[in-house]
Amino acid sequence: MSADAASALTPNDASVVLLAKISLDLGNIERKAKWYNKLSMVVKVVGLVCGILATAMATSAAGIGSPMAHAVSSSTHQVGNAVPGWRLICGIVGAFACISTICYQLHSTLKIEEHVTRFSKCSGLLRALVISCEGKNAVTEAQLEKVKKEYGAIAESFPDCWVW
Questions:
Q1: What is the rounded end-to-end Cα distance, in angstroms, of the chain?
Q2: What's the whole-number mean pLDDT along residues 86-95?
Q3: Rg of the chain's alpha carbons, rounded to an integer?
Q4: Which of 7, 20, 99, 162 has its C-alpha lying 20 to 30 A from 75's C-alpha?
Q5: What is the torsion angle, in degrees rounded to the nearest 10, for the CA atoms of residue 68, residue 73, residue 74 and residue 79?
């Protein structure tokens, strides 16, 4: 829309256009918030499951002892020598523990929860702005300017929510 066409709009028409833009941005930000939420959940679950598996394998290997190493050795077709079985068990436990550590470190380093919070807060503020605009039959120029100002303040407070 050109500048001349925008200036020719009545306050009601301008509020409809502004409301459509806010609603579009709201949809994008809510989609990003859901993505971060899913990412957070996946990283936490993978870290938790790998940690549990590492602990369970290490505990059962220590409790069962040599029979477990023999079972692993026989499955690798190296019967009679328990050392490769223990190495395999220790390697698997180490890999699970490493994956668990990496997941938790990524979660904290990338500050995923902070992103979830920021996107959720931004979408809540935009949703409140949309609700405050809906249902008004006649919009004055002052009300339109107030909404523009609030929208600009939200965009300024959460610049990372618009970049992607």
A1: 24
A2: 83
A3: 28
A4: 99
A5: -120
Residue the block writes with tokens 């220790």: 90
Q: Which two tokens stand for residue 54?
A: 């590492």
Backbone angles phi, psi at 77, to 5 degrees: 65, 35
SS3 string, 7-66, reads: HCCCHHHHHHHHHHHHHHHHHHHHHHHHHHHHHHHHHHHHHHHHHHHHHHHHHHHHHHCH
**111-160 pLDDT tens trace:** 999 999 999 999 999 999 888 877 666 667 888 888 889 999 999 999 98
Q: In this structure, what token pair is assigned to residue 63?
A: 């409790």
Residue with the two structure tokens 């859901």 = 34
Rounded to whole angstroms, the Cα distance separating 72 from 96 reads 17
What is the CA angle 151-156-160, rounded to 5?
110
Nearest-5° angle of CA 118, CA 120, CA 123?
105
Identity at 155, one-letter amino acid code:
A
